[in-house]
Specification:
Distance between the termini: 79 Å
Number of domains: 2
Structural class: mainly alpha
Largest sheet: none
Helix content: over 70%
């Protein structure tokens, strides 16, 4: 009998009994969880199909409103309908941020057909916040490596480590940004595109063999990398402060990144940052010219020099620097100033 059992055995049996009861509760909870998942899956499909149906019907209604010549008494009603139709796409965008979406080409190639949609606002914001921290931490690491390699060591295999880190960093950014876009973040296309360019340029730099031309450009590149990392740290702190204030004022979306939006009160911090940004952009142009001149030398055999020169002197980069010059004269114009603010964050390579 239980009373005749040793004390230790009774304790074990009691613990086992409690554990077995908890396990049965766990099984029941897990069963309910699976049922809820099936319900959520059905609701997601219903919402997605309803949104598609709404979009097509809204197009039909909008076409009918434009086709009909309204009388004076109908004009006000039709104007209200038109205004409501204009607001619906934003509402659908917010809804779709919480629904599974088919991955774009890039995510499909990297991850396959995996659902990357986060289901709660807390999860979305946490992932976005982690993205911002990832950029900042890696910028500090790149700053440290550039400083050490420029002033203290000069080995090609260490330079390769830095360039590999740059390739990994920019490739990781493109993946994370694609996931953020799938979760409703309104990242501009140029912002992701300039990271593709940066990853390509870093990869070309990684394959550049050791030689006289590489040694000639090495210190110039490391000095620029050191300066760029420093400016990116300043930018990050400035933009984080601006974005925090805009969110507090209710003027920005929680999933927006530190690359969008401008208000007049931002001039205070921007006047300090502008000289660093302009100098960095002209330094980038100087790098392009230096590489182009190197590619014209008779002893230039490496294809990497021409590739780097051509890529950094692309129309994208030329437009980039041209817009900076335009903004020097007409930065009071909102369009050009906003264009400058967007492009100021996209200093490639």
């Amino acid at each position: 009998s239980v009373h005749n059992m040793p004390q230790d055995l009774r304790v074990v049996l009691e613990e086992w009994k409690c554990l077995e009861e908890e396990y049965q509760q766990l099984l029941e909870t897990h069963r309910l969880y699976l049922l809820k998942l099936e319900e959520i899956s059905k609701l997601q499909k219903n919402c997605s199909s309803s949104i598609s149906s709404q979009r097509s019907k809204l197009k039909e209604v909008s076409h009918l409103v434009k086709k009909k010549g309204p009388s004076e008494e109908d004009a006000e009603t039709l104007d209200k309908i038109t205004e409501t139709i204009k607001t619906r796409p934003n509402a659908f965008f917010e809804m779709e941020a919480f629904l599974p979406n088919k991955n774009g080409l890039y995510l499909s190639l990297v991850l396959g057909n995996v659902n990357v949609t986060l289901l709660s606002k807390q999860s979305k914001f946490a992932y976005k916040d982690e993205y911002e921290k990832f950029k900042l931490y890696l910028t500090f690491i790149l700053l440290f490596f550039s400083f050490i390699f420029y002033f203290f060591v000069s080995y090609r295999f260490l330079d390769a480590i830095l360039n590999f880190l740059l390739v990994w960093y920019y490739c990781t950014l493109t993946i994370r940004e694609s996931i953020l876009i799938a979760n409703g973040s309104r990242i501009k296309g140029w912002w992701v595109f300039h990271h593709y360019i940066s990853a390509f340029l870093s990869g070309v730099m990684l394959t550049w063999p050791d030689g006289n031309l590489y040694k000639t450009f090495r210190n110039q590149f490391l000095a620029y990398s050191l300066y760029q990392s420093f400016v990116q740290c300043l930018q990050c702190y400035y933009q984080n402060g601006c974005l925090y204030r805009l969110r507090a004022l209710g003027e920005r979306h929680n999933m927006d990144l530190t690359v969008e939006g401008f208000q007049s009160w931002m001039w205070k911090g921007l006047t300090f940052l502008l000289p660093f940004l302009f100098f960095g952009h002209f330094w980038q142009l100087f790098n392009s010219i230096s590489l182009f001149r190197m590619s014209q030398l008779p002893d230039c055999k490496e294809w990497q020099v021409s590739a780097l020169s051509t890529s950094t002197m692309s129309p994208f980069t030329l437009l980039h620097n041209l817009c900076l010059c335009i903004c020097l004269n007409i930065c009071a114009a909102p369009f050009f100033f906003n264009l400058f603010m967007w492009l100021s964050c996209a200093c490639t390579f």
